Task: structure prediction
Amino acid sequence: MLEKLVIILLIINLGLILLAKIINPSEDAALPRKTMPPAALPYDINDFCAYHSHIVLQPFEDGGARFLFNCKLPGSDEVIDMIMLAKSGVYVFEHVKANGWITGMENNEKWTQRVYMGYGRKPQEDKFPNPVKIAEDNVGTVRKFLESSSIIVRSVVVFPDFCYLNNIKVFNPNTRVVTLNQLLPAVITLNNKTGINITQHDINKIYNDLVQYEVIPTDEGEY
Result:
Protein backbone atom coordinates (compact mmCIF):
# COMPACT_ATOMS: atom_id res chain seq x y z
CA MET A 1 0.00 0.00 0.00
CA LEU A 2 2.82 2.39 0.96
CA GLU A 3 4.68 1.62 -2.27
CA LYS A 4 1.58 2.43 -4.32
CA LEU A 5 1.17 5.74 -2.48
CA VAL A 6 4.83 6.68 -3.17
CA ILE A 7 4.39 5.88 -6.87
CA ILE A 8 1.22 7.98 -7.04
CA LEU A 9 2.94 10.94 -5.33
CA LEU A 10 5.92 10.64 -7.69
CA ILE A 11 3.63 10.70 -10.73
CA ILE A 12 1.81 13.76 -9.35
CA ASN A 13 5.12 15.60 -8.76
CA LEU A 14 6.36 14.82 -12.26
CA GLY A 15 3.07 16.06 -13.68
CA LEU A 16 3.34 19.33 -11.73
CA ILE A 17 6.93 19.89 -12.92
CA LEU A 18 5.91 19.28 -16.54
CA LEU A 19 2.92 21.63 -16.19
CA ALA A 20 5.13 24.36 -14.74
CA LYS A 21 7.51 24.10 -17.72
CA ILE A 22 4.62 24.35 -20.17
CA ILE A 23 3.13 27.41 -18.44
CA ASN A 24 6.45 29.17 -17.74
CA PRO A 25 8.99 28.14 -20.38
CA SER A 26 12.52 29.45 -20.10
CA GLU A 27 13.58 32.42 -22.24
CA ASP A 28 15.61 30.17 -24.50
CA ALA A 29 12.65 27.87 -25.09
CA ALA A 30 10.24 30.76 -25.69
CA LEU A 31 11.92 31.77 -28.96
CA PRO A 32 13.29 29.13 -31.32
CA ARG A 33 16.92 29.88 -32.07
CA LYS A 34 16.40 29.48 -35.80
CA THR A 35 14.21 32.64 -35.78
CA MET A 36 16.77 34.84 -34.03
CA PRO A 37 17.89 37.65 -36.37
CA PRO A 38 21.56 38.22 -37.14
CA ALA A 39 23.13 40.73 -34.74
CA ALA A 40 24.04 43.10 -37.60
CA LEU A 41 20.42 43.85 -38.54
CA PRO A 42 19.11 47.25 -37.39
CA TYR A 43 16.24 45.83 -35.36
CA ASP A 44 15.73 43.26 -32.63
CA ILE A 45 12.93 40.90 -31.63
CA ASN A 46 11.22 43.72 -29.71
CA ASP A 47 10.55 45.46 -33.03
CA PHE A 48 7.68 43.05 -33.67
CA CYS A 49 6.57 44.08 -37.15
CA ALA A 50 9.88 44.41 -39.01
CA TYR A 51 11.27 41.29 -37.35
CA HIS A 52 8.31 39.08 -38.21
CA SER A 53 7.83 40.51 -41.72
CA HIS A 54 11.47 39.74 -42.45
CA ILE A 55 11.07 36.18 -41.15
CA VAL A 56 7.89 35.65 -43.20
CA LEU A 57 9.56 36.91 -46.40
CA GLN A 58 12.77 34.91 -46.05
CA PRO A 59 11.87 32.71 -49.07
CA PHE A 60 12.52 35.82 -51.20
CA GLU A 61 15.87 36.35 -49.49
CA ASP A 62 16.77 32.76 -50.39
CA GLY A 63 16.08 33.76 -54.01
CA GLY A 64 18.44 36.73 -53.93
CA ALA A 65 16.29 39.50 -52.43
CA ARG A 66 17.96 42.06 -50.13
CA PHE A 67 16.31 43.81 -47.16
CA LEU A 68 16.87 47.23 -45.63
CA PHE A 69 15.35 48.59 -42.42
CA ASN A 70 14.61 52.05 -41.00
CA CYS A 71 15.83 53.96 -44.05
CA LYS A 72 15.78 57.76 -44.02
CA LEU A 73 16.50 58.82 -47.58
CA PRO A 74 17.85 62.25 -48.62
CA GLY A 75 15.18 64.93 -48.88
CA SER A 76 12.67 63.08 -46.67
CA ASP A 77 11.83 63.38 -42.97
CA GLU A 78 10.12 59.99 -42.93
CA VAL A 79 11.84 56.75 -41.95
CA ILE A 80 10.82 53.83 -44.17
CA ASP A 81 10.19 50.74 -42.02
CA MET A 82 11.44 48.13 -44.45
CA ILE A 83 12.44 47.84 -48.11
CA MET A 84 12.75 44.59 -50.05
CA LEU A 85 14.77 44.58 -53.27
CA ALA A 86 13.62 41.61 -55.35
CA LYS A 87 13.98 40.60 -58.97
CA SER A 88 10.33 41.58 -59.53
CA GLY A 89 10.91 45.12 -58.23
CA VAL A 90 11.20 47.17 -55.05
CA TYR A 91 8.74 46.71 -52.17
CA VAL A 92 8.20 49.41 -49.55
CA PHE A 93 6.65 48.27 -46.26
CA GLU A 94 4.75 50.33 -43.72
CA HIS A 95 4.11 48.53 -40.42
CA VAL A 96 1.19 49.68 -38.28
CA LYS A 97 1.01 49.18 -34.52
CA ALA A 98 -2.72 48.79 -34.04
CA ASN A 99 -5.35 46.54 -32.49
CA GLY A 100 -8.96 45.50 -33.01
CA TRP A 101 -11.11 46.20 -36.06
CA ILE A 102 -9.51 48.47 -38.67
CA THR A 103 -11.52 50.51 -41.17
CA GLY A 104 -10.38 53.03 -43.76
CA MET A 105 -10.23 54.02 -47.40
CA GLU A 106 -7.27 54.90 -49.59
CA ASN A 107 -8.06 58.62 -49.63
CA ASN A 108 -9.14 59.08 -45.99
CA GLU A 109 -6.95 61.37 -43.90
CA LYS A 110 -7.37 59.08 -40.87
CA TRP A 111 -8.23 55.42 -40.37
CA THR A 112 -10.12 54.01 -37.38
CA GLN A 113 -9.12 51.40 -34.83
CA ARG A 114 -12.07 49.96 -32.90
CA VAL A 115 -11.42 47.74 -29.88
CA TYR A 116 -14.39 45.88 -28.39
CA MET A 117 -14.24 45.99 -24.60
CA GLY A 118 -16.72 43.23 -23.83
CA TYR A 119 -20.46 42.62 -23.69
CA GLY A 120 -22.47 45.72 -22.83
CA ARG A 121 -19.48 48.08 -23.03
CA LYS A 122 -18.91 50.73 -25.67
CA PRO A 123 -16.08 49.96 -28.11
CA GLN A 124 -13.00 52.13 -27.77
CA GLU A 125 -12.28 54.05 -30.98
CA ASP A 126 -9.03 55.74 -31.97
CA LYS A 127 -7.96 57.49 -35.16
CA PHE A 128 -4.51 57.11 -36.70
CA PRO A 129 -2.83 58.49 -39.85
CA ASN A 130 -3.75 56.74 -43.10
CA PRO A 131 -0.93 54.17 -43.55
CA VAL A 132 -1.58 53.82 -47.29
CA LYS A 133 -0.82 57.52 -47.80
CA ILE A 134 2.36 57.17 -45.75
CA ALA A 135 3.40 54.13 -47.79
CA GLU A 136 2.65 55.87 -51.10
CA ASP A 137 4.67 58.91 -50.03
CA ASN A 138 7.54 56.55 -49.22
CA VAL A 139 7.17 54.93 -52.64
CA GLY A 140 7.58 58.39 -54.19
CA THR A 141 10.73 58.98 -52.12
CA VAL A 142 12.21 55.65 -53.26
CA ARG A 143 11.33 56.32 -56.92
CA LYS A 144 13.06 59.71 -56.73
CA PHE A 145 16.15 58.10 -55.18
CA LEU A 146 16.34 55.36 -57.82
CA GLU A 147 16.05 57.86 -60.70
CA SER A 148 14.62 55.14 -62.92
CA SER A 149 11.10 54.87 -64.30
CA SER A 150 11.66 51.27 -65.40
CA ILE A 151 11.93 49.83 -61.87
CA ILE A 152 8.58 48.82 -60.39
CA VAL A 153 8.04 50.09 -56.84
CA ARG A 154 5.14 48.73 -54.79
CA SER A 155 3.90 49.32 -51.25
CA VAL A 156 2.63 46.88 -48.62
CA VAL A 157 0.95 47.99 -45.38
CA VAL A 158 1.22 45.35 -42.66
CA PHE A 159 -0.97 45.05 -39.55
CA PRO A 160 -0.44 42.53 -36.71
CA ASP A 161 -2.40 39.27 -36.88
CA PHE A 162 -4.64 40.30 -34.00
CA CYS A 163 -6.18 43.04 -36.17
CA TYR A 164 -9.29 42.46 -38.26
CA LEU A 165 -9.32 44.44 -41.52
CA ASN A 166 -12.91 45.52 -42.02
CA ASN A 167 -14.14 47.44 -45.08
CA ILE A 168 -10.66 48.47 -46.24
CA LYS A 169 -10.80 50.03 -49.71
CA VAL A 170 -7.58 50.50 -51.69
CA PHE A 171 -7.73 50.87 -55.48
CA ASN A 172 -4.04 51.21 -56.35
CA PRO A 173 -3.05 47.86 -57.97
CA ASN A 174 0.50 48.24 -56.62
CA THR A 175 -0.58 48.59 -52.99
CA ARG A 176 -1.65 45.87 -50.57
CA VAL A 177 -3.04 46.15 -47.02
CA VAL A 178 -2.64 42.88 -45.13
CA THR A 179 -2.25 41.28 -41.74
CA LEU A 180 1.00 39.46 -41.05
CA ASN A 181 -0.43 36.03 -41.87
CA GLN A 182 -1.56 37.36 -45.28
CA LEU A 183 1.81 38.95 -46.08
CA LEU A 184 3.62 36.13 -47.89
CA PRO A 185 0.79 35.17 -50.30
CA ALA A 186 0.13 38.87 -51.03
CA VAL A 187 3.77 39.55 -51.94
CA ILE A 188 3.99 36.31 -53.94
CA THR A 189 0.95 37.46 -55.96
CA LEU A 190 2.56 40.84 -56.67
CA ASN A 191 5.86 39.14 -57.50
CA ASN A 192 4.22 36.76 -59.99
CA LYS A 193 2.61 39.66 -61.86
CA THR A 194 5.94 40.98 -62.99
CA GLY A 195 8.58 38.38 -63.59
CA ILE A 196 12.14 39.71 -63.62
CA ASN A 197 12.31 43.50 -63.40
CA ILE A 198 15.78 43.88 -61.83
CA THR A 199 18.88 41.74 -62.23
CA GLN A 200 20.75 40.40 -59.20
CA HIS A 201 23.64 42.72 -60.10
CA ASP A 202 21.30 45.75 -59.95
CA ILE A 203 19.74 44.53 -56.69
CA ASN A 204 23.17 44.45 -55.09
CA LYS A 205 24.06 47.88 -56.49
CA ILE A 206 20.83 49.47 -55.23
CA TYR A 207 21.35 47.82 -51.86
CA ASN A 208 24.85 49.29 -51.59
CA ASP A 209 23.47 52.74 -52.50
CA LEU A 210 20.69 52.52 -49.88
CA VAL A 211 22.34 50.79 -46.93
CA GLN A 212 24.19 53.95 -45.82
CA TYR A 213 20.81 55.53 -45.05
CA GLU A 214 19.71 52.91 -42.54
CA VAL A 215 19.06 54.47 -39.15
CA ILE A 216 20.62 52.09 -36.63
CA PRO A 217 18.72 52.27 -33.30
CA THR A 218 20.92 53.31 -30.37
CA ASP A 219 18.68 51.90 -27.66
CA GLU A 220 15.68 49.61 -27.34
CA GLY A 221 12.99 52.27 -27.61
CA GLU A 222 14.32 53.99 -30.73
CA TYR A 223 12.62 52.59 -33.82
Notes: The two ends are 64 Å apart (CA to CA). Residues 154 and 173 are 9 Å apart (CA to CA). The longest strand covers residues 80-86. The helical segments are 2-23, 27-30, 48-56, 58-62, 131-146, 180-194, 200-210.
